[in-house]
Design a protein that fits this description.
Blueprint lengths: L2 H15 L8 H9 L19 E5 L10 H5 L2 E11 L2 E4 L12 H16 L23 E7 L3 H11 L1 H5 L5 E2 L5 E2 L3 E7 L15 E2 L1 E2 L17 E5 H5 L9 H15 L4 E5 L6 H13 L4 E4 L2 H5 L9
Parallel strand pairs: 1-2, 1-12, 2-4, 4-7, 7-8, 9-10, 10-11, 11-12
Antiparallel strand pairs: 2-3, 5-6
């Protein structure tokens, strides 16, 4: 429960019980009721106060009622934005019919992320140097993975993505690789996926964006990809493993999973599988549980509340 929600619940409980609890004096009740009308009890970085980061990827994040904010409110450390380039502007949506002039990469992701980072790094006379904490107040070192799924032609679109990242780059918020191949974690780690061209990512140094490597071919076709290029690799769960019968992978599927985990982790690359079973819920939860226990680093989720353990159906897996 978030801090503000906990306070609200506490005050409601006091209001309901004050008449029957002698220790809650009218004076104390008045202080509690008036506490948040002034700055004294407002924490400087209250936006994500009490939110615990969780290794969850908000799949098709732009479908949510409030993209980006909904994800971080539940602690998801990774979000996904599908971008379409038209007339020099990057629009957000799953398909062309869902695009609108208002829903752009800048308006739904870049600006909100920059604003959140400024809120999490307020100016203070007590600071001797500026801070670069991430979006989560409970863990300022946790990076936010921003997957940019390029839907239009990659070679044409990717330079516009790089240009759109400028507010994050100039603010010093992005994870980087320098000319000496040293990786520095930033508040945000940008990963190009979809039609993102590897040729516009891998050879670039210094660089402040990365590539979503293909899990099945990390030891073959894409054996030259390292974590400096792909901090996270992904693949289609269904295409990779086939259907799941029951609530867990069979022995053949499990052997494949374990081999892929070893291959990726030997390169320092994290794993994410998308298109996992969503129903029955028992199958979904069983697969989530098995992926985590076998070392998969990021759980791909359409149902964020379920993945975070806040829904009745998840039963905390």
């Amino acid at each position: 429960m978030h801090y503000s929600s906990a306070i609200s619940a506490f005050l409601l409980a006091l209001n309901a019980l004050a008449g029957s609890i002698p220790d809650v004096s009218p004076a104390l009740q008045n202080i509690l009721n008036q506490a948040h009308q002034g700055p004294l009890y407002t924490y400087p970085t209250v936006l994500t106060q009490g939110v615990v980061p969780k290794s969850i990827h908000s799949h098709n994040d732009y479908w949510r009622d409030v993209p980006f904010y909904s994800a971080i409110s539940l602690g998801a450390v990774s979000v996904e934005a599908d971008v379409w380039l038209y007339n020099g502007t990057l629009y957000i949506g799953h398909e062309q019919g869902a695009l609108t002039s208002a829903r752009t990469f800048e308006s739904l992701y870049i600006n909100p992320i920059v604003d959140t980072l400024h809120r999490q790094n307020p100016n203070s006379s007590f600071l001797t140097s500026s801070t670069h904490n991430g979006v989560f107040d409970t863990d300022g070192t946790q990076t936010l993975y921003l997957f940019v799924d390029v839907k239009t032609d990659g070679a044409t679109t990717w330079p516009y993505v790089v240009r759109a990242l400028e507010p994050l780059r100039s603010g010093g918020w992005l994870s980087t690789v320098n000319t000496s191949n040293q990786f520095t974690t930033g508040a945000v780690t940008v990963i190009g996926t979809g039609n993102t061209p590897l040729a516009q990512v891998q050879p670039v140094t210094p660089r402040y964006y990365f590539y979503d490597g293909p899990i099945p071919t990390l030891n073959s076709t894409f054996s030259n990809i390292t974590s400096l290029v792909s901090p996270i690799a992904s693949t289609d769960f269904l295409a990779n493993f086939g259907p799941v019968l029951g609530t867990s992978l069979n022995s053949t599927q499990l052997a494949l999973l374990r081999a892929q985990v070893v291959a990726a982790h030997s390169k320092g690359i994290k794993l994410r599988y998308w298109d996992q079973p969503a129903w029955p819920i028992s199958t979904r939860n069983g697969i989530w549980r098995q992926l985590v226990s076998e070392g998969v680093d990021i759980i791909n989720a359409d149902d964020l509340e379920g993945a975070a353990g806040f829904s009745d159906e998840s039963n905390y897996w």
